[in-house]
From TrEMBL:
Organism for this UniProt entry: Maricaulis salignorans
Protein name: 3-hydroxyacyl-CoA dehydrogenase
Similarity comment: family membership: In the N-terminal section; belongs to the enoyl-CoA hydratase/isomerase family.
GO molecular function: (3S)-3-hydroxyacyl-CoA dehydrogenase (NAD+) activity; enoyl-CoA hydratase activity; isomerase activity; NAD+ binding
The reaction(s) this protein catalyses: a (3S)-3-hydroxyacyl-CoA + NAD(+) = a 3-oxoacyl-CoA + NADH + H(+)
Length: 694
């Protein structure tokens, strides 16, 4: 079947795009569009043109795979198609699903845009490190004004049809798209076509220039280090100053400056990595995942509350269980507070918040007789979890999936407490569970395909980004985290101040440096986890005793106002007492102070992540390098525009990672040594993880 078909319906030329899965603007689609537009514009009986799509969505933008090959430059380009539309007969875009990127930019060169109520438009190029390169910054600004253009294009968000109509980004919302589109086109044919969007000026008159400064400030805060947001702001600002032709030229130059950049490459990698992470090799694709309608949550602490909210928001009936009735009541109060906050901030309507809250009820194990899933979120104590799972085994239907939210305990040991180990799986939510996107699913050696498929499918319903991990201490994310935070302690032993280390990490793009992160998580909590880990530390390896000294001095972190920093009124400031403790450790260990450049600090913090990630690939804990990137972007705030730690490691060079790992192996012990996979890749001159089979 052709990618584009053409049919004259009376005096309307109907052009239909059929290019699954998302009608991307591939060369084939552009060629078909060009041919169909030429036919419609040349036919004297055709008075108006309608562009529609088959399948699940309107055009979702340039074909990202073809973009990587530079095929957007092959004729006919999108610009040529747009010129045929803008100067041709009256044309209408009939939008269902999503009109995104080049798809919405094409719609902007039609004379009108109509959509179904559940459709959305958007210009998400910023998520690829790009900007709308086919007039989107110029036309949307001239259609809806710079404030709306800044909000939509800098965020890259999808705009639901109702809001798009309000903004003027579409002209009508209809129920029967094809019928309405034909009627609209016939009306159009009977009257003079409106001025092309690019020629409209009313929305760019009398602009307050401060909105651009404010946008720059927000971009610097929200996407520190990302290049595309600033280029987008410049294009929108120029759309209010320049003529249409000059504005389009300015935008093209800015687009060309971003295209092929490191950030564009990294974000394109991330786009596909996030989608690949949902595909589990060996999982029978046709496996109809168990549909989760009723769930139990065990534990009403911070994690249990967040998980209950996430499930209820997805329309799932939740039974919240805590054997401590006071804790249960507190938990329900806190959940109510979450919904009040969500409604107050407009994240949910009051009705939606109330409806979701109604789905969460307190109960006991006796109320779990009909559940499809239970998520256990009890304290991180193995014996307690095993007792709970044995009880769940007796209280829930045999088909129910039993998930544990543990952040590092052994899934197999928990599963062995039940008679259904094949239905036991790790479901590691990140705190706060109703906000953080990552859901780290952990399969034990006995976890079956049904449990994995059900939880992968549930993740999508919950709006989570799933990554499947194997069963080990710390799974994918936390197993690597200890090297990042561990290095920060070794740097402090050399006299590098906490605020310097954090500043380097934050300039690199992390939302918070490793030392401040320690304070946030609680130094005392880290000391507890390390106590377990120290039992299995290889011979000759050491961990810095700084954390233990801090806890001995009563410095637990943000929770008691003093850790590596002082915390007063929500502000953090350097703490001389912490500096004294660190100096004491260095002197006791006879570690000399030494200088490090920012680059050396950056490499010491982030290169060990790459080495440990390679070990996880070797051990089968992570399936692909991209999965590790997805975990770190969504669970730890690793800058998405660097692609993730593994993509970053690949871009700095595996030889450099291995060289530093050799030095660390000598200095800190065997766990820091370069893993055989990395050494082999360096020896064989392998340049990418994909070449290495990951
Ligand atoms: N090009 C190529 N493949 C794409 C694609 C695209 N634009 N969008 C999606 N896919 C693939 C995706 O990899 C997956 O493949 C399958 O389609 C289903 O995707 C000129 C330069 C449209 C909201 O950034 O946001 O236009 O894994 O799982 O959840 O200025 O896809 O099945 O093999 O995401 O229903 C701008 C990106 C491009 C839109 C659908 N457009 N896509 O979500 O399905 S740049 C975008 C999405 C551009 C112009 C510039 C979503 C979706 P596979 P999916 P979904």
């Amino acid at each position: 079947m052709n990618s584009v078909s053409y049919q004259a319906v009376g005096e309307i030329g109907v052009i239909t795009v059929h290019y699954p899965p998302v009608n991307a603007l591939s060369l084939a689609v552009r060629t078909g569009l060009g041919e169909s537009l030429a036919r419609a514009n040349a036919d004297p009986d055709i008075k108006a043109i309608l562009i529609r799509c088959d399948g699940k969505t309107f055009i979702a933008g340039a074909d990202i795979k073809e973009l990587q090959k530079g095929w957007h430059l092959k004729n006919p380009t999108l610009g040529e198609i747009q010129a045929m539309l803008e100067t041709g007969k009256p044309s209408i875009a009939a939008i269902h699903g999503t009109a995104l990127g080049g798809g919405y930019e094409l719609a902007l060169t039609c004379h009108a845009r109509i959509a179904l109520n559940d459709a959305a438009i958007g210009l998400p190029e910023v998520k690829l490190g790009l900007l709308p390169g086919a007039g989107g910054t110029q036309r949307l600004t001239r259609l809806c004004g710079p404030a709306a253009a800044l909000d939509i294009i800098v965020s890259g968000r999808q705009v639901p049809a109702s809001e798009a109509l309000q903004l003027g980004a579409i002209d009508a919302i209809v129920t029967d798209l094809d019928e309405a589109a034909l009627t609209f086109a016939r009306d159009f044919a009977a009257r003079p076509a409106p001025a092309p969007v690019i020629a409209r000026n009313e929305a760019i008159a009398g602009i307050d220039p401060d909105i651009f400064a404010a946008a720059r400030k927000q971009a610097a805060r929200k996407s520190r280090g990302a290049e595309a947001p600033l280029a987008i702001i410049a294009c929108i600002e120029q759309a209010c100053e320049l003529t249409p032709a000059e504005g389009l030229r300015f935008e093209r130059a800015e687009f060309d400056g971003l295209f092929g950049s490191d950030q564009h490459k990294a974000l394109t990698h991330y786009f596909f990595a996030e989608r690949e992470a949902r595909k589990i090799p060996g999982l029978p694709g046709e496996l109809a995942a168990v549909r989760i309608e009723r769930a139990g949550v065990i534990g009403t602490g911070t994690m249990g509350r967040g998980i209950a909210v996430v499930l209820a928001n997805a329309g799932i009936e939740v039974r919240l269980v805590d054997t401590n009735s006071d804790a249960a009541k507190l938990g329900m109060e806190a959940i109510k507070g979450i919904y009040d906050g969500s409604a107050a901030r407009g994240i949910q309507t009051r009705d939606a918040a109330d409806a979701a809250l109604k789905r969460i009820k307190l109960g006991g194990y006796e109320d779990l007789g009909e559940v499809d899933l239970v998520v256990e979120a009890a304290p991180e104590i193995m014996e307690l979890k095993r007792t709970i799972f044995a009880r769940l085994d007796a209280s829930t239907p045999p088909r129910a999936i039993l998930a544990t939210n543990t952040s590092s305990l052994d899934i197999d040991s928990i599963a062995a407490a039940t008679a259904r180990p094949e239905r036991v799986i790790g479901a590691h939510f990140f705190s706060p569970a109703h906000i953080m996107k990552l859901l780290e699913l952990v399969r034990g050696t006995t976890t079956g395909p049904e449990a994995i498929a059900a939880m992968m499918s549930l993740a999508a319903r919950l709006g989570k980004t799933p990554v499947l991990a194997g069963n080990c201490d710390g799974f994918i994310g936390n197993r690597m985290l200890q090297y990042y935070t561990g290095q920060s302690e070794f740097l402090m032993e050399h006299g590098i101040a906490p605020e310097r280390i954090d500043a380097v990490a934050e300039r690199f793009g992390m939302p918070m440096g490793p030392v401040a992160l320690r304070d946030l998580a609680g130094i005392d909590v880290s000391v507890l986890v390390r106590k377990e880990r120290m039992k299995t530390l290889p011979e000759g390896e050491r961990m810095s005793p700084i954390l233990e000294r801090m806890v001995e001095a009563g410095r637990f972190g943000r929770k008691n106002g003093k850790g590596f920093y002082r915390y007063e009124g929500g502000e953090r400031s350097p703490a001389p007492q912490a500096a004294a403790i660190i100096a004491g450790v260095a002197s006791d260990l006879g570690i000399p102070a030494r200088e490090f450049s920012d680059e050396e600090i950056r490499d010491r913090l982030f290169m060990p992540l790459v080495n440990e990630g390679a070990k996880e690939l070797e051990d089968g804990i992570a399936i692909r390098a991209g999965d590790i990137d997805v975990a770190w972007v969504n669970g730890y705030g690793f800058p998405r525009w660097r692609g993730g730690p593994m993509f970053w490691g690949q871009s700095v060079g595996f030889d450099k990672v291995a060289e530093l790992a050799r030095e660390f192996g000598e200095r800190y012990g065997p766990r820091w040594r370069p893993t055989p996979l990395l050494e082999t890749m360096v020896r064989d001159g392998v340049a990418t993880w994909r070449e290495a089979g990951y």
